Amino acid sequence: MRVAVTGIGMVTAVGRDAASSWAAIRAGRSGVRDITRFDTTGMKARVAACVDYPEDASGTPLVAPERLRRMGEAAIAEALAQAGLSGPFPGPLCFGLPPVEIEWPQRLALGAPDHAGMIAAGAGIASHYQDFLLGGVATWLAERFETQGVPQAVTTACASGASAIQLAIEAIRRGEADCAIAGGAEASLQPEAFIRFGLLQALSGRNEPPEAVSRPFTKSRDGFVMGDGAGALVLESEAHARARGATILGYILGVGEAADTFHRTRSSPDGHAIVAAMERALADAGLTPRDVGYINAHGTSTPENDKMETLAAKLVFGAEAAPPISSTKSMIGHTLSAAGAIEAGVCLLALRDQFLPPTINQDDPDPEIGMDTVPVGRPHGFRAALSNSFGFGGQNVCVVVGAA
Predict the structure, then answer these.
(1) Could you give the residue numbers annotated as active site?
(2) Which pLDDT does position 27 carry in this prediction?
Protein backbone atom coordinates (compact mmCIF):
# COMPACT_ATOMS: atom_id res chain seq x y z
CA MET A 1 0.00 0.00 0.00
CA ARG A 2 1.34 3.41 -0.96
CA VAL A 3 0.84 6.29 1.46
CA ALA A 4 0.09 9.57 -0.28
CA VAL A 5 0.78 13.09 0.97
CA THR A 6 -2.10 15.46 0.25
CA GLY A 7 -1.20 18.43 2.47
CA ILE A 8 1.98 20.13 3.69
CA GLY A 9 2.16 22.78 6.41
CA MET A 10 5.23 24.54 7.75
CA VAL A 11 6.32 27.26 10.16
CA THR A 12 10.01 28.18 10.17
CA ALA A 13 12.30 31.09 10.89
CA VAL A 14 12.15 32.02 7.19
CA GLY A 15 8.38 31.74 6.67
CA ARG A 16 5.07 31.26 8.45
CA ASP A 17 3.79 28.79 5.83
CA ALA A 18 5.18 26.17 3.47
CA ALA A 19 5.22 28.41 0.39
CA SER A 20 7.23 31.24 1.95
CA SER A 21 9.53 28.84 3.81
CA TRP A 22 10.29 26.90 0.64
CA ALA A 23 10.85 30.10 -1.37
CA ALA A 24 13.40 31.31 1.19
CA ILE A 25 15.11 27.92 1.37
CA ARG A 26 15.32 27.73 -2.43
CA ALA A 27 16.90 31.17 -2.46
CA GLY A 28 19.41 30.25 0.25
CA ARG A 29 18.14 32.84 2.72
CA SER A 30 19.05 32.36 6.38
CA GLY A 31 16.62 32.87 9.26
CA VAL A 32 19.34 32.88 11.93
CA ARG A 33 19.59 36.11 13.92
CA ASP A 34 20.35 37.51 17.35
CA ILE A 35 18.10 36.22 20.11
CA THR A 36 15.97 39.02 21.57
CA ARG A 37 13.31 37.18 23.57
CA PHE A 38 15.66 36.66 26.52
CA ASP A 39 18.98 38.07 27.72
CA THR A 40 21.97 36.17 26.34
CA THR A 41 24.61 38.17 28.24
CA GLY A 42 27.44 35.86 29.26
CA MET A 43 26.31 33.01 27.02
CA LYS A 44 28.69 31.57 24.45
CA ALA A 45 25.91 31.20 21.85
CA ARG A 46 23.67 34.21 21.23
CA VAL A 47 21.93 33.47 17.92
CA ALA A 48 19.13 31.17 16.80
CA ALA A 49 16.55 30.63 14.06
CA CYS A 50 13.68 32.21 15.97
CA VAL A 51 9.93 32.19 15.35
CA ASP A 52 8.83 35.13 17.50
CA TYR A 53 5.36 36.35 18.42
CA PRO A 54 4.25 39.79 19.65
CA GLU A 55 4.39 38.71 23.27
CA ASP A 56 8.12 37.99 22.93
CA ALA A 57 8.85 41.70 22.49
CA SER A 58 6.87 42.67 25.59
CA GLY A 59 9.33 41.27 28.10
CA THR A 60 7.16 38.24 28.89
CA PRO A 61 8.00 35.67 26.20
CA LEU A 62 5.59 32.89 25.45
CA VAL A 63 6.12 29.71 27.44
CA ALA A 64 7.23 26.79 25.29
CA PRO A 65 3.86 24.94 25.31
CA GLU A 66 2.00 28.01 24.01
CA ARG A 67 4.57 28.51 21.24
CA LEU A 68 4.24 24.82 20.36
CA ARG A 69 0.46 25.11 20.21
CA ARG A 70 0.55 28.19 17.96
CA MET A 71 3.11 26.79 15.53
CA GLY A 72 1.58 23.31 15.50
CA GLU A 73 -1.90 24.70 14.92
CA ALA A 74 -0.70 26.86 12.02
CA ALA A 75 1.17 24.01 10.32
CA ILE A 76 -1.71 21.53 10.69
CA ALA A 77 -4.32 24.05 9.54
CA GLU A 78 -2.26 24.81 6.43
CA ALA A 79 -1.78 21.12 5.62
CA LEU A 80 -5.50 20.38 6.06
CA ALA A 81 -6.52 23.34 3.90
CA GLN A 82 -4.25 22.15 1.09
CA ALA A 83 -5.66 18.64 1.43
CA GLY A 84 -9.20 19.98 1.24
CA LEU A 85 -10.06 18.67 4.70
CA SER A 86 -11.18 20.19 7.98
CA GLY A 87 -12.29 19.10 11.43
CA PRO A 88 -13.45 16.67 12.52
CA PHE A 89 -10.49 14.91 10.95
CA PRO A 90 -11.25 11.21 10.33
CA GLY A 91 -7.90 9.85 11.48
CA PRO A 92 -5.28 10.02 14.25
CA LEU A 93 -2.73 12.68 15.14
CA CYS A 94 0.92 11.60 15.43
CA PHE A 95 3.10 14.52 16.48
CA GLY A 96 6.71 14.93 17.53
CA LEU A 97 7.13 17.18 20.55
CA PRO A 98 9.87 18.07 23.03
CA PRO A 99 9.51 17.28 26.71
CA VAL A 100 8.20 20.34 28.55
CA GLU A 101 8.76 21.50 32.11
CA ILE A 102 7.96 24.53 34.21
CA GLU A 103 10.33 27.28 33.12
CA TRP A 104 12.42 29.64 35.25
CA PRO A 105 10.01 32.60 35.33
CA GLN A 106 7.21 30.38 36.64
CA ARG A 107 9.50 28.70 39.17
CA LEU A 108 10.86 32.00 40.47
CA ALA A 109 7.34 33.40 40.75
CA LEU A 110 6.53 30.63 43.24
CA GLY A 111 9.06 32.18 45.63
CA ALA A 112 10.29 28.87 47.02
CA PRO A 113 13.95 27.88 47.31
CA ASP A 114 13.62 24.11 46.97
CA HIS A 115 11.61 21.42 45.20
CA ALA A 116 9.31 20.68 48.12
CA GLY A 117 8.60 24.38 48.59
CA MET A 118 7.77 24.83 44.91
CA ILE A 119 5.32 21.93 45.04
CA ALA A 120 3.58 23.44 48.06
CA ALA A 121 3.55 26.95 46.56
CA GLY A 122 2.24 25.66 43.23
CA ALA A 123 -0.70 23.77 44.72
CA GLY A 124 -3.91 25.00 43.19
CA ILE A 125 -2.28 26.88 40.28
CA ALA A 126 -4.12 25.07 37.51
CA SER A 127 -2.36 26.92 34.69
CA HIS A 128 1.01 25.34 35.55
CA TYR A 129 -0.50 21.87 35.35
CA GLN A 130 -2.39 22.61 32.14
CA ASP A 131 0.48 24.37 30.37
CA PHE A 132 3.29 21.98 31.26
CA LEU A 133 1.49 18.61 31.30
CA LEU A 134 3.49 16.00 29.36
CA GLY A 135 1.57 15.37 26.14
CA GLY A 136 -0.72 18.31 26.78
CA VAL A 137 0.13 20.04 23.49
CA ALA A 138 -0.77 16.93 21.47
CA THR A 139 -4.05 16.65 23.35
CA TRP A 140 -4.84 20.30 22.65
CA LEU A 141 -4.06 19.91 18.94
CA ALA A 142 -6.14 16.75 18.74
CA GLU A 143 -9.09 18.53 20.32
CA ARG A 144 -8.58 21.58 18.08
CA PHE A 145 -8.80 19.50 14.88
CA GLU A 146 -11.09 16.77 16.30
CA THR A 147 -8.81 13.91 15.32
CA GLN A 148 -9.74 10.32 16.05
CA GLY A 149 -8.36 8.14 18.82
CA VAL A 150 -5.67 8.88 21.37
CA PRO A 151 -3.16 11.49 20.08
CA GLN A 152 0.35 10.13 19.80
CA ALA A 153 2.90 12.54 21.32
CA VAL A 154 6.31 11.30 20.19
CA THR A 155 9.54 12.32 21.90
CA THR A 156 12.56 10.69 20.26
CA ALA A 157 14.79 13.77 20.42
CA CYS A 158 15.85 15.09 17.00
CA ALA A 159 14.12 12.15 15.26
CA SER A 160 10.68 12.94 16.74
CA GLY A 161 9.09 14.36 13.58
CA ALA A 162 10.29 11.40 11.52
CA SER A 163 9.10 8.97 14.21
CA ALA A 164 5.66 10.59 14.02
CA ILE A 165 5.59 9.99 10.26
CA GLN A 166 6.53 6.36 10.87
CA LEU A 167 3.70 5.88 13.39
CA ALA A 168 1.21 7.42 10.98
CA ILE A 169 2.14 5.37 7.93
CA GLU A 170 2.17 2.17 9.98
CA ALA A 171 -1.39 2.87 11.15
CA ILE A 172 -2.48 3.42 7.54
CA ARG A 173 -0.66 0.35 6.25
CA ARG A 174 -2.24 -1.84 8.94
CA GLY A 175 -5.68 -0.62 7.93
CA GLU A 176 -6.31 1.05 11.29
CA ALA A 177 -6.89 4.41 9.57
CA ASP A 178 -7.43 5.72 6.05
CA CYS A 179 -5.64 8.98 6.84
CA ALA A 180 -3.54 10.62 9.55
CA ILE A 181 -1.89 13.90 10.48
CA ALA A 182 1.84 13.52 11.09
CA GLY A 183 4.23 16.25 12.12
CA GLY A 184 6.19 17.91 14.85
CA ALA A 185 6.83 21.21 16.60
CA GLU A 186 9.77 22.62 18.51
CA ALA A 187 10.01 25.52 20.97
CA SER A 188 12.94 24.70 23.23
CA LEU A 189 14.52 28.08 22.56
CA GLN A 190 14.17 29.32 26.13
CA PRO A 191 16.93 30.10 28.65
CA GLU A 192 17.17 26.81 30.51
CA ALA A 193 17.19 24.52 27.47
CA PHE A 194 19.51 26.89 25.62
CA ILE A 195 22.00 26.81 28.50
CA ARG A 196 21.78 23.01 28.68
CA PHE A 197 22.64 22.61 25.01
CA GLY A 198 25.49 25.05 25.53
CA LEU A 199 26.84 22.99 28.43
CA LEU A 200 26.77 19.95 26.15
CA GLN A 201 29.04 21.96 23.82
CA ALA A 202 26.53 21.27 21.05
CA LEU A 203 25.94 24.89 19.99
CA SER A 204 28.10 27.02 17.72
CA GLY A 205 29.84 29.91 19.43
CA ARG A 206 30.56 31.93 16.28
CA ASN A 207 27.62 34.40 16.55
CA GLU A 208 28.91 36.86 13.91
CA PRO A 209 27.46 37.29 11.40
CA PRO A 210 24.37 35.33 12.49
CA GLU A 211 23.46 34.16 8.99
CA ALA A 212 26.87 32.49 8.59
CA VAL A 213 26.91 30.56 11.88
CA SER A 214 25.22 27.33 10.72
CA ARG A 215 27.73 25.88 8.27
CA PRO A 216 27.33 22.12 7.77
CA PHE A 217 30.07 20.19 5.94
CA THR A 218 32.69 22.96 6.33
CA LYS A 219 36.08 22.80 8.01
CA SER A 220 35.00 25.58 10.39
CA ARG A 221 31.73 24.01 11.60
CA ASP A 222 31.65 24.08 15.39
CA GLY A 223 28.09 23.30 16.51
CA PHE A 224 24.45 23.62 15.61
CA VAL A 225 22.08 26.56 15.76
CA MET A 226 18.79 26.03 17.59
CA GLY A 227 15.57 26.78 15.74
CA ASP A 228 11.85 27.09 16.38
CA GLY A 229 9.44 25.56 13.91
CA ALA A 230 6.67 23.15 13.04
CA GLY A 231 5.81 20.89 10.15
CA ALA A 232 2.74 18.83 9.33
CA LEU A 233 1.74 16.36 6.62
CA VAL A 234 -1.69 14.98 5.78
CA LEU A 235 -1.15 11.33 4.93
CA GLU A 236 -3.71 9.06 3.27
CA SER A 237 -3.80 5.65 1.68
CA GLU A 238 -3.53 6.20 -2.05
CA ALA A 239 -6.94 4.60 -2.55
CA HIS A 240 -8.57 6.95 -0.03
CA ALA A 241 -6.97 10.02 -1.57
CA ARG A 242 -8.00 9.08 -5.10
CA ALA A 243 -11.52 8.12 -4.05
CA ARG A 244 -12.17 11.62 -2.74
CA GLY A 245 -10.42 13.32 -5.67
CA ALA A 246 -7.57 14.75 -3.64
CA THR A 247 -4.45 16.15 -5.28
CA ILE A 248 -1.51 13.89 -4.42
CA LEU A 249 1.65 15.89 -3.69
CA GLY A 250 3.94 12.89 -3.33
CA TYR A 251 4.35 9.69 -1.36
CA ILE A 252 5.98 8.42 1.80
CA LEU A 253 7.56 5.34 0.27
CA GLY A 254 9.40 3.94 3.27
CA VAL A 255 10.78 4.50 6.75
CA GLY A 256 13.71 2.86 8.52
CA GLU A 257 14.95 3.14 12.08
CA ALA A 258 17.90 1.81 14.02
CA ALA A 259 19.09 2.34 17.58
CA ASP A 260 22.64 3.34 18.45
CA THR A 261 23.43 2.73 22.12
CA PHE A 262 26.97 4.07 21.86
CA HIS A 263 26.51 7.31 23.86
CA ARG A 264 23.80 9.62 25.19
CA THR A 265 24.60 12.31 22.61
CA ARG A 266 27.29 11.02 20.23
CA SER A 267 26.95 8.63 17.30
CA SER A 268 29.03 5.50 17.04
CA PRO A 269 32.23 6.33 15.11
CA ASP A 270 31.60 3.52 12.60
CA GLY A 271 28.14 4.88 11.75
CA HIS A 272 26.59 1.39 11.82
CA ALA A 273 23.17 2.46 13.12
CA ILE A 274 22.94 5.34 10.66
CA VAL A 275 23.80 2.94 7.82
CA ALA A 276 21.17 0.50 9.07
CA ALA A 277 18.46 3.19 9.25
CA MET A 278 19.17 4.28 5.66
CA GLU A 279 19.25 0.72 4.35
CA ARG A 280 16.03 -0.21 6.16
CA ALA A 281 14.25 2.86 4.75
CA LEU A 282 15.31 1.92 1.22
CA ALA A 283 14.24 -1.68 1.75
CA ASP A 284 10.88 -0.58 3.15
CA ALA A 285 10.41 1.61 0.07
CA GLY A 286 11.40 -1.21 -2.27
CA LEU A 287 14.15 0.96 -3.78
CA THR A 288 17.85 0.53 -4.47
CA PRO A 289 20.43 3.21 -3.64
CA ARG A 290 20.54 4.15 -7.34
CA ASP A 291 16.86 5.18 -7.17
CA VAL A 292 17.53 8.02 -4.71
CA GLY A 293 18.49 11.33 -6.29
CA TYR A 294 18.85 13.55 -3.22
CA ILE A 295 19.56 13.30 0.50
CA ASN A 296 18.26 15.94 2.91
CA ALA A 297 20.91 15.55 5.57
CA HIS A 298 20.49 15.61 9.30
CA GLY A 299 23.42 17.96 8.73
CA THR A 300 23.63 19.70 12.09
CA SER A 301 26.94 21.56 11.52
CA THR A 302 28.64 19.73 14.37
CA PRO A 303 32.08 18.29 13.62
CA GLU A 304 31.17 14.71 14.47
CA ASN A 305 27.62 14.45 13.06
CA ASP A 306 28.46 15.70 9.58
CA LYS A 307 31.47 13.40 9.36
CA MET A 308 29.53 10.33 10.51
CA GLU A 309 26.52 11.05 8.30
CA THR A 310 28.49 11.48 5.11
CA LEU A 311 30.62 8.43 5.92
CA ALA A 312 27.43 6.41 6.32
CA ALA A 313 25.95 7.82 3.10
CA LYS A 314 29.06 6.78 1.15
CA LEU A 315 28.87 3.30 2.66
CA VAL A 316 25.22 2.95 1.57
CA PHE A 317 25.35 4.66 -1.82
CA GLY A 318 29.02 4.27 -2.77
CA ALA A 319 31.67 6.95 -2.54
CA GLU A 320 31.52 7.70 -6.27
CA ALA A 321 27.77 7.18 -6.78
CA ALA A 322 26.33 9.00 -3.75
CA PRO A 323 23.60 11.49 -4.66
CA PRO A 324 23.75 15.22 -3.80
CA ILE A 325 23.29 15.94 -0.11
CA SER A 326 22.32 19.25 1.47
CA SER A 327 21.39 20.57 4.89
CA THR A 328 18.51 23.01 5.14
CA LYS A 329 19.50 23.47 8.79
CA SER A 330 22.07 25.90 7.42
CA MET A 331 19.11 28.28 6.92
CA ILE A 332 16.36 27.29 9.39
CA GLY A 333 18.52 25.98 12.20
CA HIS A 334 18.07 22.68 13.99
CA THR A 335 14.37 22.44 14.79
CA LEU A 336 14.92 19.31 16.90
CA SER A 337 11.51 17.64 17.42
CA ALA A 338 10.10 19.28 14.28
CA ALA A 339 13.08 18.65 12.00
CA GLY A 340 11.97 15.29 10.59
CA ALA A 341 8.55 16.62 9.62
CA ILE A 342 9.79 19.93 8.18
CA GLU A 343 12.55 18.25 6.20
CA ALA A 344 10.26 15.55 4.79
CA GLY A 345 8.06 18.42 3.60
CA VAL A 346 11.12 20.12 2.05
CA CYS A 347 11.95 16.90 0.18
CA LEU A 348 8.42 16.71 -1.22
CA LEU A 349 8.60 20.32 -2.41
CA ALA A 350 12.05 19.70 -3.90
CA LEU A 351 10.63 16.73 -5.82
CA ARG A 352 7.67 18.77 -7.00
CA ASP A 353 9.91 21.53 -8.35
CA GLN A 354 12.80 19.24 -9.37
CA PHE A 355 15.14 21.54 -7.48
CA LEU A 356 17.88 20.88 -4.94
CA PRO A 357 17.84 23.20 -1.91
CA PRO A 358 21.30 24.47 -0.99
CA THR A 359 23.60 24.14 1.97
CA ILE A 360 24.64 27.75 2.49
CA ASN A 361 27.91 29.06 3.97
CA GLN A 362 30.09 26.64 2.00
CA ASP A 363 33.09 28.97 1.80
CA ASP A 364 35.53 26.46 3.34
CA PRO A 365 34.32 22.97 2.41
CA ASP A 366 35.74 20.09 4.43
CA PRO A 367 37.72 17.89 2.00
CA GLU A 368 36.98 14.84 4.18
CA ILE A 369 33.26 15.08 3.38
CA GLY A 370 33.81 14.10 -0.24
CA MET A 371 30.22 14.62 -1.42
CA ASP A 372 28.25 17.12 -3.47
CA THR A 373 26.84 19.34 -0.70
CA VAL A 374 24.93 21.67 -3.07
CA PRO A 375 26.50 25.04 -2.16
CA VAL A 376 24.04 26.75 -4.52
CA GLY A 377 20.51 25.52 -5.17
CA ARG A 378 20.01 24.13 -8.67
CA PRO A 379 17.56 22.24 -10.90
CA HIS A 380 17.88 18.47 -10.69
CA GLY A 381 15.88 15.58 -12.09
CA PHE A 382 15.02 12.92 -9.50
CA ARG A 383 12.12 10.72 -8.42
CA ALA A 384 12.94 9.85 -4.80
CA ALA A 385 14.67 11.52 -1.86
CA LEU A 386 15.93 10.42 1.54
CA SER A 387 15.36 12.54 4.66
CA ASN A 388 17.66 11.75 7.61
CA SER A 389 16.90 12.42 11.28
CA PHE A 390 19.36 11.32 13.96
CA GLY A 391 18.50 12.02 17.60
CA PHE A 392 20.33 12.08 20.89
CA GLY A 393 20.28 8.70 22.56
CA GLY A 394 20.90 6.93 19.25
CA GLN A 395 17.38 7.37 17.86
CA ASN A 396 17.87 7.27 14.10
CA VAL A 397 14.99 7.46 11.60
CA CYS A 398 15.17 7.87 7.82
CA VAL A 399 12.20 8.61 5.55
CA VAL A 400 12.08 7.95 1.79
CA VAL A 401 9.71 10.19 -0.16
CA GLY A 402 8.69 9.87 -3.79
CA ALA A 403 7.35 12.20 -6.45
CA ALA A 404 3.69 12.28 -7.36
Answers:
(1) 158, 298, 334
(2) 98
